Amino acid sequence: MCAGAVGVLELRRNSQRYDATRLMQALPVNGAVKLYLDVGQLRASGLLDEIAGKEAAEDADYRSFSEEIGFDYRTDLDAVAAAFVNGGFYAAVKGHFDWKRLNDYVRSQAGRCLNGICAMVGSQPDRMISFYPLNSEVMALAVSDQPQGVVMISAGQSKAITVPPAVLWISAPGSAFRKISDPPTGTRSFLTPLADAQEASFSIQAAPGSGDALQIRMEVGCASPRAASDLAGDLTHSTEELRRMLTRENLTPNKSNLSGVLVSGRFEVHESKVTGTWPMDRGVIQALVSGQVK
User: First-to-last CA distance in the chain?
Assistant: First the structure.
């Protein structure tokens, strides 16, 4: 009977589908900067290879590590939901894992696996890496100062959060925007007003009714309808100022870089929420994901 009960629980756990929202709901998201990346979409579009570069150019140590654990992000990684909070990194990673080889690797690094949770020392003595399978295709992963920080991750703990269908989604409380010291050129006047928001999210997703076209979509929750109206006004003013500045410098907005995207912004107010959209070119995604935004 005990074996049967365990079998039923295991079957139920492995039968649960983990989409973007369910992955994020497993994480400790209160007060966190949250990120979702759909690697499967990037791979299918060909962007993953463009962003990552040629396989032959990868670091030899990474290739050795990848072969030892039997996991290559180019082919085995499907999606990542992550939360950065209180100095810790927590993630629900969807992919194709060889759990036995992962466990063997942990033990080879003087770590240990007990009751399904594996833990080992990270690159610094005060950083611990811990993980366990949420199901056969989803890894709960934590990097924190706690030996078993991964216990902070469990299925369905954050029901209030949803993730839109997007290649990339980032969401953060307003306080996080006060800590940005060196934003990409031209974005400071857009990001500074978000410091007073309750929560602001940005996503890269398909533009409605336009085939393969993409857009950046922003959603900002404000304390009141008046605050939302003021924020929309600030963002519209910043867009107009940037457009005038480019005109003064005799520059033409380039749709393949961030300035060309920013001047095309449109904003709407819905009670206490502000939405914004910016049409974007494929080249901007490459820059955003690779950290080479201009």
Answer: 62
